[in-house]
Amino acid sequence: MNIAILTFDGFNELDSFIALGILNRMKGSGWNVQITCPSDQVTSMNGVTINAQQPLSFCNDADIVLFGSGIYTRDIAKDPSIMSQINLDSSKQIIGAQCSGTLLMAELDLLQGLPACTDLTTKPWVIEAGIDVLNQPFMARNNVATAGGCMSSQYLSAWAIAKGASTEDAESALTYVGPVGEKESYTKQCLDVVSPYLI
Amino acid sequence: MNIAILTFDGFNELDSFIALGILNRMKGSGWNVQITCPSDQVTSMNGVTINAQQPLSFCNDADIVLFGSGIYTRDIAKDPSIMSQINLDSSKQIIGAQCSGTLLMAELDLLQGLPACTDLTTKPWVIEAGIDVLNQPFMARNNVATAGGCMSSQYLSAWAIAKGASTEDAESALTYVGPVGEKESYTKQCLDVVSPYLI
Fold first, then answer.
1. What is the pTM of this model?
2. N- to C-terminal Cα distance for chain A?
3. What are phi and psi of B158, to 5 degrees?
4. Tell me: the pLDDT tens digits for A18-29?
5. Could A180 and B27 be called an inter-chain contact, meaning their C-beta atoms sit closer than 8 Å?
6. B2-197 belongs to which homologous superfamily?
7. Which residue in B45, B99, B109, B119 has the most C-beta neighbors within 10 A?
8. Contact A138, A89 (CB under 8 A)
9. Chain B, 159-188: which have a CB under 8 Å from a chain A CB?
10. Domain ranges of chain B
């Protein structure tokens, strides 16, 4: 399984790295989770420069693609030099977006008329793109999901593991990363949010 | 305010970057949050290479120092070339550790006999270092705190903001990063964990 976490200049560290940390709990089961970028290096919204693990083309053949969020997403959505490189197919790939990443999914026509989740800053731009925005942290149908609010990354990640492997694997990953002494309640709360969308 | 997030080779992305993301909500109030490393670049436990924002010496004059976690912490704790560069003073600095970072605080004699939190993997090594380990996500006394389980980074971060600025600032940062539609309950839950240690 190849998993691309799309990460652009100005990226929100919480959105890309919470997903990376949780999804890598599946490394032992052969999941290859990769920070995927349009350039060799990208710098986060708070000035941390990281090396790409994969070029953008990696996402087109990945089994799971998650769109990270960031402060330059509106510009990226209008940049054909980046957007033309992303060619996804939700009938074959599991695709999700975090916060402003929802705008990129809208631009790529990946939401298929679904209402979506995003952060409060991005909300007006997603509405402008013709998408209904929900006042909830997570939403999914079939192979497509969106999440809003940085810490909802945990829901998007749990959904991706449940879709790509099993609910038991998602439960195991959540239990590992959960706070000591709260692992059971933490895992239950996350799965309660995600489970209705796994039917 | 200078804030050092100590980040070593093999680092856990959740532990360093959840703190970075939440603490940077204070950027507008002059907080300078920096990934602080013993080398120009470090590579995470899942293979992501990042550039240091500051050398290790930055931590010695920082107002707040958070020890990140990682898979090589036991080796780092025994490496005088790294440990001798870290000279902290909990009477003047706010100091916290996440997961295996607790082992580094123990090694540097920063826990002052306090029982501590850590992750379940590190627990036996912290006990071996003579520290009582608690079955809870977060613990603090005066200027010193420890947290256990990756997602407890949110508690350590909230505590650091409350200590370095105010509980209202911590509340504001948590509200921003919280899941859409759950921001109030998320913020309350985090502050409920941290508040007893702010007295």
1. 0.97
2. 22
3. -60, -40
4. 999 999 999 999
5. no
6. Class I glutamine amidotransferase (GATase) domain (3.40.50.880)
7. B99
8. no
9. 176-183, 186
10. 2-197
